[in-house]
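[job 0417] fold request received: Isocytochrome c2 protein
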Amino acid sequence: MLVKLENLWRQYVFPAVQNLAQLVYRLLSPLPEKARLPVSIISGSVLFYALMVVTNPKTKTFEPREQSWDVKAHSVVFGATIPEFKSFGEVMAERNIFLRALVDGEVISVSDDLHEGAFIKKGEKLLTIDPFEYENALGEAKAQLISAEASLKMSRQDYERAEKLFEKGTVALRYLDEKKTDLTVKRANVDRLKIVVRRAQRNLDNTKVVAPFDAYVSKVTVDEGRLVNRNDHIALLSDASSYEIRFNLSDSEYGSLLSTQTHILGQPVIALWKVGNKEISLEGSVKYVGARIDPSIRGVDVIADVKDVGNSQIRGGAFVEVIMQGNKLNNVASIPEDALFTDNENVEFVYVITNNRLEVRRVKSLMKVGGNILISEGVLDGENVLTTRFTEAAEGVLVNIP
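[job 0417] inference complete; emitting structure tokens
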């Protein structure tokens, strides 16, 4: 390296400096001796400055490069769709009743099927309360009724005889009225005793407690030998033949359905009940909607019936995933929720990517379904809308879709 520098010095630099020195000497020779030194200093400075200017590297002007943002996009496709609203709910028996004792007494027998979790059929006898007192009460009421009916028969005969005697003029009207009054009293007594007999018969029948419908049993509180009072709880019965599904729609989903004039009552509902590795599907339709929006969960309760349980043996309290279908909508497109923006005036818009640049388009949204928004106008079929949110997004920004 040093050898090369030495060769360059000898071949180029030294001869040039020597020639420059000779030129300066010739120029300064005519000058007085006292002026040569200042002139040489000034000339050297000027020459050094010129050399620095000539050899100084020129800086290039910086031109900023436009930044491009890598983004994700969604291709818009218009067509007909049936919106589906997904939620979670609970299966409940349509009827849940506490079976009660209707008479007082000692439980003398209990069915083997009356236990926690058992399935019972309609009309099945579940327990028997000691009928002794009620059999006696019924017998006594019947005896009193027979006596009253005999007395009524005699009173009727007396009245008929009094009528004949009154027609002949043998007895006065007062006598006839007395017999008629007695007949009325005896007839009322018979009617009263018939009621007593029916009540006694019903009490006797109620000593046998039977299942009012097909049901699953829980919360059993009786056993053989226990004394029960009227209205004591015996067990909780959950209807095994008819179920309903209770789930929740958010207030925005509920409002979206109303805004599209969707009649919620009667809308089809599918409930998915996951049991282990199996998934059982239950179908139904909306039966009624809750009376008010619950402020704690910002939603409204929806109750749907279950058309056919089949052999699923579903129980009340089952946790299910619910899918409720809305009305069919034509010429709409579904875009991700992140693609919809709102300005300060609550005007909804999207960014359409045209020639790798963002273009603002106002859109008309119909409803939110899951994580998507249904729109009816504002973009064209096949156009790409921005789904990536970043602070630099604006009209004309350069983007790139990887």
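[job 0417] notes: The longest strand covers residues 278-289. The radius of gyration is 52 Å.
[job 0417] exit 0
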